Amino acid sequence: MRRLATLLAALVTAAAVLITSPGSALAQPAPKTSLPDVEDEVMCVECGTALNLSQAAVADQMRGFIKSEIAKGRSKDEIKASLASQFGDVVLADPPRRGFNLAVYIVPPLVALLALGGIAVAARRWRRAGPQPEPVAAPALADADAQRLDRDMAAYDL
Length: 158
Description:
The protein is an all-alpha fold. The protein is built from six helices and no strands. Among the domains are: 19-94, Helicase, Ruva Protein, domain 3, CATH 1.10.8; 97-127.
């Protein structure tokens, strides 16, 4: 039992050393923010499209600002917060989850749930309706009418 406890303590110590060593993949800092990483989450304030799709002059200025912030070592969230303080929340592709913007996150799932509920109710009523009555057969044609119909139909056969 004592040997097992010693072996377990040695394994835990070795794992801790491996995790905290500078060359370890787990000890690496988070990857540096890149322009494409921020660009697709920010909107152009002039044309209202995603910054990575916009060709407006303002979009070029915003890209320059983002590049300078990345060079300063700022994170994506810090850059987005800085842009939002300059231009307002309209610059964010993903609106903040507060105030009226909360409707963007609540209404679509609610509408989808209501639609599914409506479909379920309609399907239940449709299944309860039971079998449909058989269609009534048309009365047989008189011989003269049947011959005239055959002649008319033959005129259209090619």
